[in-house]
Design goal:
The chain has 175 residues and is mainly alpha-helical. 51% of the residues lie in helices and 0% in strands.
């Protein structure tokens, strides 16, 4: 841990209430919250008021158009949330939060689906289920093999000697 020094200041009651509410919502103690706020402020100031300047190397632009009514709803929501939190909530932060939340949920759902699928047999591994109309064919195929052997015995003697019709298909008459 780095060395620490006490910082004490008298601030207006309204600002104190905003800071206390935001600190509680962030789940931080006063020391950590004030450290975070001051660090973010000085990062912002050092980057000419643009906190994203240091992160611009690994960013991509995502742009899309939305209906005016939805834009106004978002704008109103951001204003209310900014007042409630005591810090400005930007459109960017709002949209990124929604995207991350949706992706996290999709990834959790995909993981649950994979876990469920892991306990189920793969379609390719599923065993043959005979039709109810075909009582001779068993699930293990033993009866089907016996039937094909019997059919081969009852085949005409010249079945294997039939001429090829030219399309690779042989024909034979069965008794």
């Amino acid at each position: 841990m780095t060395g620490r020094k006490n910082l004490c200041a008298h601030i207006p009651i309204a600002l104190h209430e905003k800071v206390s509410a935001a600190r509680a919502e962030a789940g931080l103690n006063t020391n950590d919250y004030v450290t975070q706020v001051l660090t973010e402020y000085y990062d912002w100031k050092e980057n000419g008021g643009n906190i994203m300047a240091r992160k611009a190397e690994n960013t991509r632009t995502l742009a899309f158009q939305i209906p005016e009514e939805l834009f106004q709803r978002i704008k109103e929501h951001l204003e209310k949330e900014s007042r409630r939190r005591g810090i400005r909530l930007t459109q960017r932060d709002f949209v990124l939060g929604l995207i991350e939340q949706a992706l996290d949920e999709a990834e959790r759902e995909a993981a649950r689906t994979e876990e469920t699928a892991a306990g189920q047999p793969d379609e390719a591994d599923a065993r043959y289920e005979p039709d109810a109309d075909c009582p001779d064919a068993g699930a293990d195929g033993e009866e089907a093999e016996a039937d094909s052997e019997e059919s081969a015995e009852n085949a005409p003697a010249d079945a294997g000697e039939d001429a090829d019709s030219g399309d690779g298909v042989r024909s034979a008459e069965w008794n």
